[in-house]
């Protein structure tokens, strides 16, 4: 029986890893079967046991899984004009719901989900995606509503259903990112681990706006909370 109180969320393990480790985990997968690709519409959604997508900035990416089968989407939030320019369908929550219903049993009591991405300009789209999860009483975790697109890198997601694990990486990280005191640097779980990364600070002077590269070190929860306005990982997450 699905528990629908506010203490339930995405029930898989969440692992924050470097881009190098992400590549090592996904490079053997066949993109035609496993990658959710550009042009990032609901029609490019994939279902399967191992799925990944890359380059998430202002787009909205999500996962729905029942522990046996997983669906992953990566949605651009184009309006009508931008969609016509790219020759794709615009973001339409009714179309998104229709496609999901055709491929996923949204009433499955074991279904749980994850949402990542979005930005100020597409907060309405994010609200609609959250509303869709909530309509079908799907518990989910969320890292969303980015504070700035320039100073924070691109995200990528990989979900392995058999391992019941979600792997997240960010282009700001490198091989030196994680504290070397941890024994397993290949699959570091989100339990307050320290992460070192490059970012940018916005500067304003008489010449206008400029950006300075800054090296920072913080724990993983703070890393996400510094970048996103909405970070909610609850009872079943490996967030401490």
Quick structural summary:
By secondary structure, this protein is α+β, with helices and mostly antiparallel strands. The protein has helices at 19-26, 31-34, 80-86, 93-103, 123-135, 220-227, and strands at residues 13-16, 46-48, 50-56, 60-65, 70-75, 112-119, 140-146, 155-160, 165-170, 194-205, 208-219, 228-232. It is built from 6 helices and 12 strands.
Strand content: 25-35%
Biggest sheet record:
6 strands, mixed
Gyration radius from CA atoms, angstroms: 18 Å
Structure annotation, total helices? 6
How many E strands?
Answer: 12
Strand order of the largest sheet: 2-5-4-6-7-12
This entry's quaternary arrangement is: single chain
Give the topology string: H per helix, E per strand. EHHEEEEHHEHEEEEEHE
Q: Based on CA inertia axes, which overall geometry fits?
A: globular
Helix content: 10-25%
Instruction: Outline the low-pLDDT stretches.
Output: 1-7, 180-192, 235-240
Summed over residues and divided by their number, the pLDDT gives a mean of 84
Structural class: alpha+beta
Please report the distance between the alpha carbons of the first and last residues.
25 Å
């Amino acid at each position: 029986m699905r528990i629908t109180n506010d203490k339930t969320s995405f029930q898989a393990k969440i692992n924050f890893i470097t881009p190098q480790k992400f590549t090592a985990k996904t490079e053997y997968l066949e993109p035609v079967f496993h990658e959710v690709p550009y042009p990032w519409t609901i029609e490019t959604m994939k279902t399967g046991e191992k799925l990944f997508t890359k380059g998430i900035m202002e787009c909205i990416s999500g996962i729905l899984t029942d522990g046996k089968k997983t669906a992953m989407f990566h949605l651009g939030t184009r309006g009508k004009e931008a969609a016509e320019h790219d020759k794709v369908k615009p973001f339409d929550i009714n179309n998104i719901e229709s496609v999901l219903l055709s491929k996923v049993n949204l009433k499955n009591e074991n279904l749980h989900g994850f949402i990542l991405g979005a930005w100020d300009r597409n907060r309405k789209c994010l609200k609609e995606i959250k509303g869709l999860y909530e309509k079908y009483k799907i518990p989910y975790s969320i890292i969303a509503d980015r504070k700035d697109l320039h100073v924070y890198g691109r995200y990528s997601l990989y979900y392995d259903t058999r391992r019941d694990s979600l792997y997240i990486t960010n282009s700001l990280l490198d091989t030196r990112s994680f504290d070397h005191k941890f024994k397993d640097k290949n699959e570091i779980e989100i339990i307050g681990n320290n992460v070192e990364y490059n970012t940018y600070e916005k500067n304003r002077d008489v010449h206008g706006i400029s950006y300075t590269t800054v090296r920072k070190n913080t724990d993983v929860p703070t890393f996400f909370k510094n970048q996103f306005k909405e970070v909610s990982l609850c009872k079943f997450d490996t967030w401490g």
